[in-house]
Design a protein that fits this description.
Length: 130
């Protein structure tokens, strides 16, 4: 497995993400269109603020006093793994990928630059084994 994480990076321009200022209603609609079960969320400056899942929306909707006009930022998971930096060792990214489908990657200013998917990591490992 290569140590340079850029080899595995799916760049921001090729990644589906949500903006933190979207309403819960808008975010849910975008997630539905995407077909993904977890999506990175960034703010207006492009900084990574967390990831949101189908379950986050579901649990929020199940609350009695849900307001679909609130920002999705208010329901972002607090226990989702933090983003990796461009200097994070591949071994740590591999460990994170065991717990979630993708690892968000940020630069040294916390600007979201892309993700590394579990699928890409596994394909690389399978290639090395073969």
């Amino acid at each position: 497995m290569k140590d340079n994480i850029f080899f595995y990076l799916k760049k921001k321009g090729d990644v589906f993400y949500l903006n933190s200022f979207l309403s819960i209603e808008q975010g849910l609609e975008e997630m539905k269109k995407s077909g993904f079960t977890a999506i990175p969320v960034i703010d207006k400056e492009g900084c990574y603020v967390g990831s949101i899942t189908e379950g986050d929306f579901l649990w929020y909707i199940c609350q009695e006093d849900h307001n679909m006009k609130k920002s999705i930022k208010s329901i972002i998971r607090k226990d989702f793994m933090p983003a990796a930096s461009i200097t994070t060792p591949m071994s740590e990214i591999l460990n994170q990928s065991l717990l979630q489908n993708y690892v968000p990657v940020v630069d040294d200013r916390n600007i979201f630059i892309g993700i590394i998917t579990r699928k890409v990591i596994l394909e690389s490992l399978f290639t090395q084994i073969a």
